[in-house]
User: Fold this.
Amino acid sequence: MKNYLFEQKAAFAFNIWSIDSARAVIDAAAAKKTNVILQTSSGVFQNIAKKQLREFVSSYAADQGIRAWLHLDHCKKTELVREAVESAWDSVMIDASDRPVEENIAVTNEVTDYAHEREVLVEAEVGQIRGVEDDLACEQAQIASVEDIDRFLQETEIDMIAAAFGNAHGLYQSEPKLHYEIVEYITGKTRIPFVVHGGSGMTDEAIRRLLRIPNVRKINISTDVKLAYRKGITAAYEKGLMERDGFQATTVEHLIHESIKSMAGAKLSLLTE
Ligand SMILES: [Zn+2]
Assistant:
């Protein structure tokens, strides 16, 4: 089965929640002439028009001359993962990292069997990444242990691996202490692409360093997309565009679109500099 992550050196994966946010990210990627991953959290996945989002992402990206893949981010429920596979998402993440490693492996294998039969890729996580994202919360940083990583690599057939290496979801309170040695250990041991979670708020320097490690191929950006959306709304207020008189929804939408596109464009520049 072909792994789309091998089609280019690395790709950013931006969390989106609507056709409009998907379009802003695709526009940014098309401007940089790079392919891109759009991911839905499991909460978004449950509420979105799946068939129409799938069709939009494929057809709009093709019109812009790039490829955009759809991925299901952190999902703890196997039924939902199956639904994403059936909805033609290109890849899914089963996240049982909060369970003991043997249970994590068992659930991951169950999902992988199902997904691979339908040519869908699987991402899984070793060592729980801390922070808050959607309905997902983890207080304590748990750096993945070498024993767990080894077992996971030996006993699963996943296509993308995520591991806790000091990264976190949401807003970093201070600069994170990243354990690059864990990323280097994994990428030195396997050809399975490594996924960086919690890319929002990491410095460009940290992302550059990660991208220099061979086989770091997917960098997740979620919080920054939401902050860019907020920035667009704030800009509309500041320009006086939210006054009742003369209010134009399209002008506000345009500011939000440009804000998301500009943030995504800045991240994507790190791939080509
Ligand atoms: Zn994550």
About this structure: The two ends are 31 Å apart (CA to CA).
